[in-house]
Design brief:
- The chain is mainly alpha-helical.
- 38% of the residues lie in helices and 7% in strands.
- The protein has three helices and two strands; from the N terminus they run ββααα.
- Strands 1-2 form a two-stranded antiparallel ribbon.
- Helix 2 packs across helix 3.
- The longest helix is centred in the middle third of the chain and has 14 residues.
- The two termini are 27 Å apart.
Length: 89
């Protein structure tokens, strides 16, 4: 829980739909679902994984499997988004 003023708010573990609808406009286009190769991990799941690392302080390689292939997908995407200035103001 997070204390804001004198009120505790629950920790966000998954991006809420309303927030995701705003964030996805800042991200580059996703790979189409019918593309051959590795299975596609949605940007929303990747962002949930990135936030998990930032919130918990865990290492990328310790990221739970629910966020895709852990360090590989989430960390790579995080690095790509930094280069693309996704996180800039």
């Amino acid at each position: 829980m997070c204390l804001i003023g004198n009120k505790y708010l629950p920790t966000i573990r998954k991006i809420p739909d309303e927030l995701w609808n705003e964030i996805k406009l800042l991200l580059p286009p996703e790979k189409p679902n019918d593309t051959t190769g590795r299975s596609i991990i949605s940007f929303r799941k990747v962002l949930d994984g990135i936030l998990h690392v930032l919130r918990t302080g865990c290492q990328w390689k310790m990221l739970p499997r629910e966020y895709g292939s852990g360090s590989t997908t989430c960390h790579r995407r995080f690095q790509e988004w930094i280069v693309c200035d996704v996180f800039s103001e």
